[in-house]
Design goal:
four-stranded antiparallel sheet; 456 residues; Rossmann fold; 3 domains; Beta Polymerase, domain 2; alpha/beta; 10 strands
C-alpha cells in the first residue's frame, strides 16, 4: 500500500484560499483523469467539500507523488502552486488512512461530529468508480471509511459534539435562540437542490417554516425536492419549485435564504439583495432578512455585509464560531475507534497483498499433481477409474497438507507490520512466475471492483 493524500482544509487554509481553490464538478473529473494520465499515480479520487479539497492516490513514488498531486491541484484550481503550497498537507500510508477515517467520523469537520461528510465521502467514491480511477486500494479504503463513520455515529455520542453544517448555520442565524422558535412561520428560499440544500430544506421544514421555495438551475431536481418535502406523512410544509430567473422576486418575499450551489460565480449579488430589502420595507415586512451561504466558492456577494437589515452567516463566520464550540467527551471514544480501525485496515491490506502469491503457489502445486498423475497413468495404463481416482485424491491430500501450515502462517505473518516481504520470500523459495502472480492480482482486482460498486 502506497496511499498518499495531498489537500487543504479549513484547518490549514483561510476561507479565501479554500474558496479560490474549490473545484467544480467538471474540474474534479478532469483532475482525476489527469492524475491517472500522469506518473506516478495508478488510481485516484477526490474529496471536495466546502471545508476541504483532498486528492487521494495510490502512488509508486512518494516525493514524485507529492509533487505531481500538488501541481495538479494547483493546475485545476484558481490558486498558483507557489501560493497554494504553504496551505497543503500531506499524509502517507497509515497516516493517510487515519486521516480519512477521522474525516469520516466528523473529527476533522468544522463542526465536530457532523454527519454530512459521510454522504460526501460516498459521493467521492462513486465518482472514482464511475470514472474507473478508483481501484482496489481506494475502493477498500473509502468503503472502510463509510463503515467507520457510521459505526462512530451509532456506537458513540459524537452527534452530541456537533451537528450538520446546516444546523450549525441556522443556530447562528437564530442568534443563540431555539431554531424552532426563530423559524416558525417564516418564508424560506433554498437555492440549489444538492445534498446540502436538500438537508437545509428538510431542516427548515422540521423547524416549522411556513413555506419553502426551491430554486435550481435544473428544474427537475428542484421539483423532486419539493415532492419529497410535501409527500404524505412528511413535514406538511408548503413548498414549490421555481426557476433560477425567479430568485430575485422570491428574495423579496423570503425571511430566510439558504444558498448552496455549485456555481463558480455569485448567485446573489449585493444589488439584488439591496433591491429585495427595499421591497421588504415597502411591503412592511418585519425583522431582518437572514442569509446562510454554505457554498464554496460563496454564492452570496460579500458586499452584502455593508447593508443594513440583514443577518448574514457564511463559511467564514461559521469557521470562527466553530472554533469556540466545546468538544464532547465522546470524541475520545471515536478516536479510539479510528485507531483500531486503522490497524485493522493495514493488517487486511498486508494480508491481501500476499494472497495472489499464495493462490499462484497452490495453482503451481495443482499443476504438479496433474502432471504426475498423467505420468503415472502412462506408466500404469491398466489402472481402473476407481484406483486412478483414489491415487489422485491421495496425492492432492498430501500436497494440501504440506502447503496448509506454511500458507496459513505466511498470511498471518504478512498481516503484521513489516510483513510485506513475505510475499517476495514465497515467490523466491518456490520459484513462482511473477507474471502468474500478476495475472492472479489483476483477476482479483477486477472482481473486487465489481463487488465494491455493488456495496455502495
Amino acid at each position: 500500500m502506497s496511499l498518499l493524500v495531498v489537500g487543504l482544509s479549513h484547518r490549514s487554509a483561510p476561507v479565501s484560499v479554500l474558496e479560490r481553490a474549490s473545484l467544480s464538478s467538471d474540474a474534479q473529473v478532469k483532475l482525476l483523469q489527469d492524475a491517472l494520465a500522469a506518473e506516478p499515480a495508478s488510481e485516484a479520487t477526490v474529496l471536495a467539500t466546502c471545508n476541504r479539497i483532498e486528492l487521494y492516490a495510490d502512488v509508486d513514488k512518494f516525493h514524485a507523488g507529492v509533487a505531481e498531486l500538488s501541481m495538479l491541484l494547483a493546475q485545476h484550481s484558481e490558486v498558483g502552486l507557489d501560493e497554494l503550497t504553504p496551505y497543503l498537507y500531506v499524509h502517507y500510508e497509515d497516516r493517510a488512512v487515519h486521516h480519512l477515517l477521522s474525516v469520516a467520523c466528523g473529527l476533522d469537520s468544522m463542526v465536530v461530529g457532523e454527519g454530512q461528510i459521510i454522504a460526501q465521502i460516498k459521493d467521492a467514491l462513486a465518482l472514482g468508480q464511475e470514472l474507473h480511477t478508483a481501484g482496489r486500494l481506494l475502493n477498500d479504503l473509502f468503503q472502510q471509511a463509510l463503515r467507520v463513520g457510521k459505526r462512530a455515529h451509532s456506537e458513540t455520542g459524537i452527534d452530541r459534539a456537533g451537528q450538520s453544517l446546516v444546523t450549525f448555520g441556522l443556530e447562528q442565524l437564530a442568534a443563540g435562540g431555539a431554531v424552532e422558535a426563530w423559524a416558525k412561520k417564516k418564508h424560506a428560499l433554498v437555492i440549489g437542490a444538492g445534498s446540502m440544500s436538500s438537508l437545509a430544506a428538510a431542516t427548515l421544514a422540521r423547524a416549522g417554516v411556513e413555506e419553502i421555495v426551491v430554486a435550481n438551475r435544473t428544474p427537475a431536481r428542484a421539483e423532486r425536492l419539493v415532492r419529497i418535502l410535501t409527500e404524505p406523512g412528511g413535514t406538511g410544509v408548503r413548498a414549490r419549485a421555481v426557476d433560477m430567473t425567479a430568485v430575485d422576486a422570491e428574495l423579496a418575499r423570503a425571511d430566510v435564504v439558504v444558498s448552496c450551489t455549485g456555481a463558480t460565480g455569485l448567485v446573489l449579488t449585493a444589488v439584488a439583495v439591496e433591491a429585495a430589502l427595499s421591497a421588504r420595507t415597502e411591503a412592511g415586512r418585519e425583522g431582518p432578512l437572514a442569509l446562510l451561504d454554505l457554498a464554496m466558492p460563496r454564492d452570496i456577494d460579500p458586499a452584502v455585509h455593508r447593508l443594513g437589515g440583514l443577518r448574514v452567516v457564511d463559511i467564514e463566520s461559521l469557521a470562527e464560531a466553530a472554533a469556540d464550540a466545546p468538544m464532547a467527551a465522546d470524541v475520545e471514544q471515536v478516536r479510539t475507534i479510528v485507531s483500531d480501525e486503522v490497524a485493522a485496515f493495514g493488517a487486511a491490506q498486508r494480508a491481501a497483498h500476499i494472497t495472489p502469491t499464495v493462490v499462484a503457489l497452490r495453482a503451481m502445486a495443482a499443476d504438479v499433481v496433474n502432471s504426475e498423475v498423467a505420468r503415472l497413468e502412462g506408466r500404469l495404463p491398466d489402472l481402473d477409474d476407481k484406483q486412478r481416482s483414489e491415487i489422485t485424491r491421495t496425492v492432492r491430500r498430501v500436497v494440501d497438507k504440506l502447503l496448509h501450515a506454511p500458507t496459513v502462517r505466511v498470511k498471518q505473518l504478512a498481516s503484521e507490520p513489516g510483513g510485506a516481504g513475505y510475499a517476495d520470500a514465497l515467490r523466491e523459495l518456490f520459484d513462482l512466475d511473477p507474471q502468474t502472480v500478476a495475472a492472479v492480482s489483476r483477476a482479483d482486482l477486477n472482481d473486487t471492483d465489481g463487488v465494491g460498486r455493488g456495496r455502495v
